[in-house]
Write a structure and sequence with these properties.
CATH class of the largest domain: Mainly Beta
Helix content: under 10%
Distance between the termini: 47 Å
CATH architecture of the largest domain: 5 Propeller
Bound molecules: (Z)-L-Arabinonhydroximo-1,4-lactone
Number of strands: 36
Structural class: mainly beta
Largest sheet: 13 strands, antiparallel
Number of domains: 2
Length: 505
């Protein structure tokens, strides 16, 4: 395998992988975004194409009032008995639920709640006699014990009803690092392996492993634990952990896991959030040893253009806590995405926003829109408290930055009608203190005379660490008043090194 890393760039954390014949499928967390739980297909573990989302209907997740960071956490995707199975925690919503589908692209079921599984990061495994085990992290999200961590737990369930068949039992919970989580349990040629994450999903993140003769233990930890971590190293890919193993048809092994690519002089800011990486796994003395995660040659340039000529939106498009199909139309004005506003702005929990993940360190997004009947624009969003926007309407073009409670706007007069808005992210060049942040975000508008820049902003305030978010940047179209028709959205990005600063002649 020649790893192409990131395997799935941009905000795609907590990957879980399964194989059906020669096909691999992957699912990731999606938090408060809908449609939820993106699903990918690959034949080689490194080139992944999105084939759908597991959550496409109201009621599968309870996101309407979910706090930022809540929602779909850490799915486990399995192919078993001719079907696809997905367990996930709807954090601060429905709790842990189990969905099934005949085909990986869906449709997926409404999901049965896993009664008796109080925690996060559920895994699903079957014994040879058909017994179904849910192994999970006992972090309590609500009730009197909220915040308490009960370690790794396991319970046998009836996967058809979701009912627990016994009282959960504590299992091996790592080497003592914080937040034992993301357990995955595998029967590998008669030995049961328990792979977990520990150390927290930040820079201390690590993968540890234990083995047992039975699925319920007792488990013996690997003497070399943690078997993978980038902590305290200068590796470009940090935070590596939350891994899921998969066997290749020729008997090799790989791990899909999350990682971050922090930037800036102190390597403190990750603009893109947690991404999905892949690494090969060797075996030593009966233990899996994942190789350190390498970043592959930088993506020289790729992109996505939508002219809104299709009958439905591509599965990659995301909205916040609501389904965009409820308030957008592709038929009202053919060849346009018409967004109906309801007065919400990007500061609100349910903005009328349809976005695309930023997947490269250098990125340019342009949107062609008509604001004759409303106000709308483009936003680079991490959450409702961290976003940079450029919008037109009401006789103005306006750039707006919101960082926590601080808001600043810049505006110029602009006649209503067609306009092109642009958001760019450019890595900071230079090795001195001017290079502390990861990038500069520029907001520009062109109403016919070329682009004019309204604001150039420090990208560190819209990075995962500043927002303390589990997500990443999503750049998208929005409307705040009336209706706004988008004719075209173009994303282009690359990861080539930034050119050295020019010397003054
Ligand atoms: C995920 C858990 C985690 O469920 O973050 O910090 C949660 N660790 O493994 C959301 O990604």
């Amino acid at each position: 395998m020649t790893a192409r890393n990131p395997a799935v760039p941009g905000f795609h954390p907590d990957p879980s992988v399964t194989r059906a014949g020669d096909d691999y499928y992957l699912a990731c967390s999606s938090f408060e975004y809908l449609p939820g739980i993106p699903l990918f297909h690959s034949r080689d573990l490194t080139h992944w194409r999105q084939i759908g989302n597991a959550v496409t209907r109201p009621g599968q997740l309870d996101l309407a009032g979910t706090p930022t960071l809540g929602g779909a956490w850490a799915p486990t995707l399995r192919h078993h008995d001719g079907r696809f199975w997905l367990v996930v925690t709807d954090a601060m919503g429905r709790g842990s639920i189990l969905l099934t589908a005949d085909r990986p692209e869906g449709p997926w079921s409404d999901g049965v709640p896993l009664h008796g599984v109080s925690g996060i990061d559920p895994d699903l495994a079957w014994d040879t006699d058909g017994t179904c085990y849910v192994t999970y992290s006992g972090l309590q999200l609500d009730g009197a014990d909220a915040g308490q961590h009960l370690g790794i737990l396991q319970v046998r369930i009836d996967p058809h009803t979701g009912h627990a068949l016994e009282t959960p039992r504590p299992l091996w919970s790592g080497t003592g690092l914080m937040f034992p989580e993301a357990p995955h349990l595998y029967d590998i040629d008669g030995t049961w392996y328990l792979v977990i994450a520990e150390g927290g999903t930040e820079r201390g993140h690590a993968v540890s492993v234990a083995r047992a003769d039975r699925p319920d233990g007792p488990f013996e930890g690997c003497p070399a634990n943690p078997v993978l971590s980038a902590r305290s190293t200068d590796r470009p890919v940090q935070n590596t952990g939350h891994g899921d193993l998969v066997r290749t048809p020729d008997g090799g092994w790989a791990m899909l896991l999350l990682g971050m690519r922090p930037r800036g002089l102190t390597r403190a800011f990750s603009a893109l959030g947690r991404e999905t990486f892949v690494t090969e796994v060797d075996w030593r003395d009966g233990w899996p040893v994942p190789r350190p995660v390498e970043q592959s040659a930088p993506d020289a340039g790729s992109g996505f253009v939508d002219d809104f000529d299709a009958a439905v939106l591509d599965p990659r498009w995301l909205s916040v806590r609501t389904l965009h199909t409820d308030w957008t139309s592709l038929t009202e004005r053919p060849g346009h995405l018409v967004v109906h506003a309801d007065g919400s702005t990007l500061d609100d929990p349910r903005p009328r926003f349809v976005g695309h993940r930023q997947q490269h360190h250098t990125a340019e997004v342009t949107a062609h829109l008509d604001t004759t009947h409303g106000t709308g624009g483009l936003s680079l969003r991490v959450d409702e408290s961290h976003h940079y926007d450029i919008e037109a309407g009401g006789g103005f073009v306006r750039a707006r930055a919101r960082i926590g409670g601080v808001v600043q706007t810049w505006e110029q007069p602009l006649a209503p009608g067609p306009v092109v808005l642009r958001v760019t992210a450019e890595p900071v060049t230079g090795t001195g203190f001017e290079g502390l942040g990861p990038d500069t975000v520029r907001l520009s508008a062109d109403s016919g005379d070329g682009f004019a820049e309204l604001a150039a902003l420090d990208g560190r305030y819209v990075s995962a660490e500043t927002a303390a978010s589990f997500t990443g940047r999503v750049i998208g179209m929005y409307a705040t008043e009336g209706t706004v028709a988008f004719d075209r959205f173009a994303y282009h990005g690359h990861d080539r090194p930034a050119p050295a600063p020019q010397e003054n002649p």
